[in-house]
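Notes from the 1:1 (GR / supervisor)

We went over the backlog. Supervisor wanted to see one worked example end to end before approving the batch request, so GR pasted a single chain during the call. The sequence is below; no edits were made to it. Supervisor asked that the structure be written out right there so they could see what the output format looks like.
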Amino acid sequence: MIEYVVELDQLSMDDVSQVGGKNASLGEMLQNLAPLGVSVPGGFATTAAAYREFLVQDGLKDRIAERLHQLDITDIPALQSAGSDIRRWINEVPFPAEMEKAIDDAYAQLEKEYGQEATWAVRSSATAEDLPDASFAGQQETFLNVSGLANIKQSIREVFASLFNDRAISYREHQGFDHEEVALSAGIQKMVRSDIASSGVAFSLDTESGFRDVVFITGSYGLGEMVVQGAVNPDEFYVHKQTLAADRPAVLRRTLGQKAIKMIYSGEASNPVKTVEVNPEQRVLFSLTDDEVETLAKMVVTIEQHYKRPMDVEWAKDGNDGRIYIVQARPETVQSQQENVIEEYILKERSKVLAVGRSIGKKIGKGRVRLFNSLDQMDQFEQGDVLLTDMTDPDWEPIMKKSSAIITNRGGRTCHAAIIARELGVPAVVGCGDATESVVDGADVTVSCSEGDEGHIYAGLLAFEHNVRHMNAMPEIPVKIMMNVGNPDRAFTFGQLPNDGVGLARLEFIINNMVGIHPKALINADKMGDDVQKIIYEKTTAYGDPVEYYVSRIAEGVSTIAASFSPKKVIVRLSDFKSNEYANLVGGPNFEPHEENPMIGFRGASRYISDGFRECFELECKAMKRVRDDMGFTNVELMIPFVRTTAEAAAVIEIMKENGLERGKNGLRIIMMCELPSNAVLASEFLDYFDGFSIGSNDMTQLTLGLDRDSSLVANSFDERNPAVLAMLDMAIIACKNAGKYIGICGQGPSDHPDLAKWLLDRGITSISLNPDTVVSTWQNLAK
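Structure output shown during the call:
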């Protein structure tokens, strides 16, 4: 006897062949994870047997098989015609009587349980769906806010028909799946009222690097289809799993999305949802609070632990009861299958930036731009073209796999287009906003996703380098190889390279790229001009106030790097902007002096202790205390740059102590950047205030030899191996060794000059901190 429908809470992962991966997963969670705090709405599912019985009607199965057997999927018009015919046939054939009765009975039970006012989501779940080697994400239809039995039945029929969307037919052919072996189950699930709240997608790893110690969450207002389809640029959140488990504040990073539109209930039975604009006051706020982000992250971790593999989850917040629900969960199918290989793309030149958005993957692609507004143009697309459009729908998959790169105005890093782009290995930059206006159809462009979270579209066909490294066990060497990491966007990737931690994390990169506003402009926000106040409002409102924005953004950047390398040491150098660099920040010209030579001017420790800047330095201290003491990243150590005198050293250490950063407390070490001749000559005296030195070889060379390293006129004299420079380094190294304190060096000198590296090893240097792209090669050279 055929079982046509099954209640979701009666299903488990043993039923994948019966109801597909998606519906089986819902049942698995309802049975096993509800007691652990994972909330899943109930409902029922039609079975694969019901679908196959339906296809027997009117010879439908044979007609479909014959139509597909004749099809060449590379012929786009023929593919479109075949798909259209098959979907029409499915909509014309009635359900078997027994199947119709089973649906009637199941729906009557749902009405009894949830009431007649409840509405429903009708989703697809293919029997081959969500297996480890396939991602059918978004290939079949989803219907939201469906009410009444007649509309439920029609939606089930439409779901069945969507198994033969153009993208689904093409994908199965591409993956080698037999069309007749794939069946469809329709899941009927109680709607969560996210139309009056928010919804989105979450992954139990970072989708770009594969870093597994974080939960990555995207969210926007209204129903989740806007995020899934890529119609909005959503908020993004990263949550650190180990910090979450320790019950500490665990949100590493927050990125405010534009969230321009949302999908809500329309109140019309014939067209139950509609898209409206989000009001400006909501756009500048996050769609979830930190507490809600952490609650959701705990559910995602619970799901991952149950399935014992990385997961891709869709979530929705109910605006009536305020709770967060999981509406789908499936295996992550891209990063979790990557081999132990580091693939690196390096852009060798730059040109005019035409557009900027969120990068998908880490590759670079280039080619001729084809601006498409609809699928009607699909047959005009050639292999290697760059696809440019407002937003990509999964229907576009047949041409996405022919693209050298993809550019969209809208979308986030968890939309269907992004998922498929990752799976196909095609670089994509999504959520550019105005790319269809700033990038011209027919132009040659280079699309770079190799520079962090931000992807760039450059004019012209630029040269780039592609390296593949197999990450085998690295040889033992007598020194620690650390990294110089300033960009939190790349930290998850860099942390997976061979390393002994971070020897230099520059705070000024975080301030410049994640804050972008002068700290005194934030402290004095109400006194700034209208143009600056507008920028401050847009950037800081989500954080409560401008000063909290500054502290939080610094903490986010540092905690992201700390989490990426934990439990290895991360030495964070506090800000070392020169006055001309601070002046480039929003509001900066109002507070910075003009200096003839900023390189040896108002910078480093002398700036920290000055009456005009001390309150800004104290905000940096507050951020560091939050990272170490509140979030628990005690692997973070701090470094003070450009300390001219021991009096400055004493004053800085005292200010830090007053702000809760005391040497030795909670394991805190404070390192000094040894980069001035005075630091080396009086090394023992400076070490009274610090727990070691990190040698800044560039400034030490510049100031020892009395030359401007930025001047081409004296560039030939710049050499870190100069005997005078080596004498300075030797004094610093000897003083640290005699005091039993840390001694490292930050700079590319040991990588560029093997003889300098050997000299440093012979002198007993503790660590060498290098740019990430030279770590592996330098490590291997030192082993020789």
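Supervisor's comment: The mean pLDDT is 91.
Batch request approved.
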